[in-house]
Structure formats: C-alpha cells, structure tokens
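$ ./design --mode recover --in tokens.txt
reading tokens...
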C-alpha cells in the first residue's frame, strides 16, 4: 500500500499513460476544475485511469469514485480519501 498522497501531477501522468500519445489532449496548466469531458477523456479512458491508479497505489476504488468524478479535483480527492481509509485500516 502506498503512503504517498495522490496529487494532480500523479493524475496527469496516469492520464497521459492511459491515453497513449495523448491524442492532442493538453494537460498543461491548472486542470483541477475542468470537466474530464472537456479535457477529452471519456468514461472508458477514466476506467483505464482508475485501473492504473488502483494497481499503482494498491487500493480498490469504489466504482462510483470514478463514475461520479467529473473533474480531476474530484478524482484526486476520491483517491486520497481511499488512501486515507486504506492507511487507517491495518487489516487490509
């Protein structure tokens, strides 16, 4: 389990990896409150992103965490909430 906070820079890196070449999607600048749809990421790309986050951070995100996160800020917060829960539960 990771003890590192999940940051927007981590999310940008994973989004780029999930998109391959990026297909012209710019993740430069402050993207925290821009809808994923506007950024060019559909539900399939976000599912791939969620899978990569789960594997890298050794967590299991609630399905709604990904489907309800409309912006990078919401997804970063959901991941950090899950990391906090995972860290507080020594049984997992």
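writing sequence...
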């Amino acid at each position: 389990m990771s003890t590192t906070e999940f940051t927007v820079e981590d999310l940008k890196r994973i989004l780029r990896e999930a998109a391959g070449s990026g297909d012209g999607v710019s993740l430069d600048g402050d993207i925290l409150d821009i809808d994923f749809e506007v950024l060019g990421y559909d539900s399939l790309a976000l599912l791939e992103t969620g899978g990569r986050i789960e594997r890298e951070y050794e967590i299991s995100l609630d399905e709604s965490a990904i489907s309800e996160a409309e912006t990078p800020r919401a997804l970063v917060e959901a991941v950090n909430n899950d990391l906090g829960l995972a860290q507080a539960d020594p049984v997992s």
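exit 0
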